[in-house]
Amino acid sequence: MRISRRRLLALGLGTVVAAREPQRLLRAASASALEPRLNPITLERFVDPLPIPLIARSVATRPSPDDPRRQLPFYRVEMRELESVVHRDVLPTRQWGYGGTVPGPTFETRSGEGLLVEWVNALPAKHLLPVDHTIHGAQADKPEVRVITHVHGAKAPPSSDGYPEEWYATGQSRTLYYPNAQDAALLWYHDHAMGITRLNLYAGLIGAFIVRDAAEGALGLPAGEYEIPLILYDRFFSRDGQLSYPVSGDPTAPWVPEVYGSTTLCNGKIFPYLEVEPRKYRFRVLNAANGRHFNLLLSNGQSFQQIGSDMGLLAAPTVLKNVMLFPAERADLIIDFSEHAGSDIRLRNLTDEILQFRVRGATRKDTSVVPANLRDVPRIVESTAVLTRVLTLNDHGDHAGNSMRMLLNDMHWDMPVTEKPVLDTVEIWSLVNLTDDAHPIHLHLVRFQILDRRPFDLFTYNATREIKYTGPAVPPPANEAGWKDTVRTDPGRVTRIIICFEGFVGRYVWHCHLLEHEDNEMMRPYEIVAAAEDAAVGHEITLKHDHVHTAS
Q1: Buried b / exposed e across 484-506, counting CB within 10 Å, b at 16+?
Q2: Which are the contacts of 207, defined by CB distance < 8 A and separation ≥ 6?
Q3: Residue 400 pLDDT
Q4: Alpha helix locations (H) across 435-477?
Q5: What is the mean pLDDT of residues 115-134?
Q6: 110, 180 in Cβ contact below 8 A?
C-alpha cells in the first residue's frame, strides 16, 4: 500500500513523512496520528494580546569595516534557551530565541547606515529537536548545536552573509557587518547552519530586520504604533506545551520532507487579539514557517491594499481580497478599519483563524495617506541579460515514490560551483520545476524581478530533456511585480526571473526555502566573480537544455 505525501496531509496528519519503504511510511503515519499532541481547536480563542517584538538597541559603537574613521552602532544578541507562554491555557514552552524572545527583537535601521552585530551562541550543547546525522553537513562528528545567522534580503558582503558552512558552536560568537546600502524593506534574520536550519528555526531563531529610507518616510504611510509586524509560522505542540517536531519513524534517519504544523502562531502567540482604532494600519507580514504557505484574508470580506513585497515598496498600491505568502515571502499591507468601529474582524488563513482585530473608538485623527504612486520600480529589460541559465528543480524518491532528497539542477551541495555570474551583469534564470511541489526559491545577496511563469510538458521533458511549452507565459500579478528575493516556482512550470548581480564579489547560496528541502541538499553555492575572472562558466549551462519548443 502506498500513501502519498498529499494523502497524508488530507488525512489530517499535518506533516509529510519520508520513508525508505512502504511499511516504514505506514508506521510513521500511524505514529504521527497517535502521538498525544495539543489540538488547537480545544483552546479558547483571542484571550492573549498580540505581542509586539521589542526594538533591538545598540550597546556601543565600533569602527566601520569600510572606513575605520567612521563609528557604527554595535549590537550584541545572544541566542539562548527560554520558556515562553504561547497561550494562556498552555504550559510554558521551551524554545530558543534571539535576545531571549521568540520572535527575536526587531532591528530598525536606515538605508546607507551600516551596523555591526555580535551574534552569540549561548545555547545548550544538546539540541532541543532530533538531529538527523545522515544529512550532509549534520554528521555525527559535528557539534549538535551549531549556528550562523543570515539576514534574509540583506545586501551584505560574503563574510557576513551567514554562509551555511561557517557555523560555530556553543560558547562562541561571530560579529557580522551589514552595510544596509539598499532600499527600505522588511528583511528578516534567522539561523542558517548547514543541515539543521529547519530545526533551529523551528526552535525559534527568527526575527525582523527593517530598513527605512527618506523616500519611504516622505510618503506619509501609517507609522509608529500604527505600523505593526506580523510574523506568522506554524508548529506542533505536545499536550504539555512543548515543541513537537515530526520524525520519520526511523530513529537513525528522522528527517521528514515537509512539516505543516497544526497550530499557527502570530508574533509568538496562538490566537492573539489586537485592539485597533478605526483608521489605517500598516502591517509588515512575514511568513517564517518551515513549509506552510498562508493565503491571508479578512473574515468580513473587506479588501486591503498591498504596498510592498519582499524587497520594498511596489510602484503603486494594489487592492486585494487575499494575499498568498510562501515561506520567506513578505507583504506590506494597509488595512483600513475606519468603517468598522465596534467590529471584531479576524485575519484568516483561508478558514483558519490567526488573529482577531478588535476595532475600538478612535483616539487620534488619522493623518496617514497611501499615495497612488509609491516608488519608481523600473523593469529590468530582458535584452540586457548577458546569459540565460536553465536550472531544474528535482525530487528523488524511493521505490515507493516517497521523497528522499531534493536537488537544484540535479546537483548536490558539495559538487563544483557552476553558477558564476559576473559582478554588475544581468542574467535570466529559468527555473524548471520537475517536482509535484511549489518551491519558494531564494537567492542570497541580490534582488530580482519575476518575468513570467509558463506551463510545459513534463513527460516530454523527462523523455527527451526538451522543454515543450503547453501554454502562454503568464506575467506576475501586480503584487509580485516589485523587487523580490524569493519566488514561488509552481510545479510543471518554468518560472523566469531576471537578476542584476550587484554588490560584492564572493560566494553565496541559492536554495529552496521549504526548510526540510533546503537541509537535505536543495541548496547550492553560487559565486559572483569580477569581470577579469569571467570564464564561459554559464555557456554550457545554457546549452544543457538547448531544445525549447512551443506547442502549436
Answers
A1: bbbbbbeebbbbbbbbbbebbee
A2: 53, 98, 99, 103, 104, 105, 106, 107, 188, 189, 190
A3: 66
A4: 458-464
A5: 98
A6: yes
Q: What is the pLDDT of residues 488-526, one digit of tens each?
A: 999 999 999 999 999 999 999 999 999 999 999 999 999
Give dist(CA 484, CA 476) in Å, integer: 11
Cβ contacts of 463 within 8 Å, gap of 6 or more: none
Confidence check: pLDDT of 29 > 90: no
Helix, coil or strand: residue 269: strand
User: How many helices (H) and strands (E) are present in the chain, helices listed first?
Assistant: 7, 38
Q: Which amino acid, 438?
A: A
User: Taking a C-beta distance cutoff of 8 angstroms, is the pair 221, 370 a contact?
Assistant: yes
Q: Which residues pair with 98 in a beta bridge?
A: 79, 101
pLDDT of residue 398: 74
Q: Which residues contact 49 (CB under 8 A, 6 or more apart)?
A: 272, 273, 274, 275
* CB crowding 233-266: b at 16 or more within 10 Å, else e: bbbbbeeebbbbbbbbbbeebbbbbbbbbbbbbb
Q: How are beta strands 439-443 and 60-63 bridged, if at all?
A: unpaired
Q: Which residue has the higher pLDDT, 550 or 256?
A: 256
Cis status of the peptide bond prior to 158, with omega within 30 of 0: no
pLDDT tens digits for range 207-252: 999 999 999 999 999 999 999 999 999 999 999 999 999 999 899 9
Q: Mean pLDDT over all residues of the chain?
A: 91
End-to-end alpha carbon distance in the chain = 40
Q: Provide the grid cell at 507.
A: 560566494
Q: Is 94 helix (H, G, I), strand (E, B) or coil?
A: strand
CB 255 within 8 A of CB 18: yes
Q: 490, 486, 487, 488: which is closest to 471 by C-alpha?
A: 490
Q: What is the structure's pLDDT at 11? A: 32
pLDDT (tens digit, 9 = 90+) per residue, 411-438?
999 999 999 999 999 999 999 999 999 9
